[in-house]
Amino acid sequence: MSHWIVWLSVFILGIIIGSFLTVCVHRIPEGRSIVAPRSACPHCQSQISWYDNVPLLSFLWLKGLCRFCAEAIPPRYPIIELINGMGYLLVVWRFGVTWPTVVYAGLFSVFWLVTWIDWDHKIIPDVITLPGIVVGFLCAAFLLPTGWLNSLLGILVGGGILLGLAWISPYVFGKEGMGGGDIKFLAMVGAFLGWQQALITLMIASVVGAVVGIGLLVLKVMQKGQYIPFGPYLALGAFIALLWGTELWQWYFRGLV
Ligand SMILES: [Zn+2]
């Protein structure tokens, strides 16, 4: 498993899928097809040839500029690809070459995709989360250590707890706390990983979100009333729960349960 060819293959697969994610980030919120037409430069509309569409490398040899109009290619493209490759390495390092690893790597890409879509558009599309809940249940029942019962509880706890918060927060905080997209996202996380991981996801997302939010207010990067969508925090929390959820749960509730 420590053979470098395995690691290299995993990384290359990760950046290829990452390249596909850059397409999905733009097209899914607009309801466009993610397979056709070929990618084009958003500035001059020139179609991008396969040799200019190689993950990471094309950005380097084009020096970050469109071949036709020399407009800068946003650095988010290589960043999305690179992080997706690194995420796959992390999953393989944690779980080895197994069926759960395949599912978890795919799930990481979904988290990473949701992070960017929610950042850009402040939505988490149903077209990702609703099929995700069903696929998560099936994977949990047949491929993952989660099991069907824990998956079902995960859907109920993940969806239910945020639904409850969304329902009471207008009374408590005077505004809507959670979007429906967040609720369905956490239900999807619960479907794949189980109810404990859904709770860990929410705890990590809340803590990191509060720390970052207060930090940005103090540093005056952000004005009061501005906000960062919750999806990226949930996605981060979910990935940590995916990697170390069981250990975190045992550590946190040591002696209590
Ligand atoms: Zn161009």
The low-confidence parts are none
H/E element order: HHHHHHHHH
How much beta, percentage-wise?
under 5%
Share of helix, binned: 55-70%
DSSP strand count: 0
**Class based on secondary structure composition and strand pairing:** mainly alpha
Helix count, per DSSP? 9
The ligands bound in this entry are:
zinc ion
Gross morphology is globular
**Mean pLDDT reading:** 90
Number of domains: 2
Rg, nearest Å: 19 Å
Between the first and last Cα atoms, what is the distance in angstroms?
A: 36 Å
Q: Specify the biggest β-sheet.
A: none
Give me a quick take on this structure.
The chain has 257 residues and is mostly helical. Helices cover 68% and strands 0% of the residues. The protein has 9 helices and no strands.
Based on the model shown, name its key terms.
257 residues; binds zinc ion; 9 helices; mainly alpha
Walkthrough of the structure:
The protein is mostly helical and 257 residues long. The chain folds into two domains: 1-97, no CATH class; 98-257. The chain is built from nine helices and no strands. It has helices at residues 4-27, 57-61, 76-95, 99-121, 126-142, 148-172, 180-193, 195-218, 231-252. The longest helix has 25 residues, at 148-172. The radius of gyration is 19 Å and the shape is globular. The two termini are 36 Å apart. Bound molecules: zinc ion. Zinc ion (ZN) binds next to loops. Zinc ion binds next to loops.
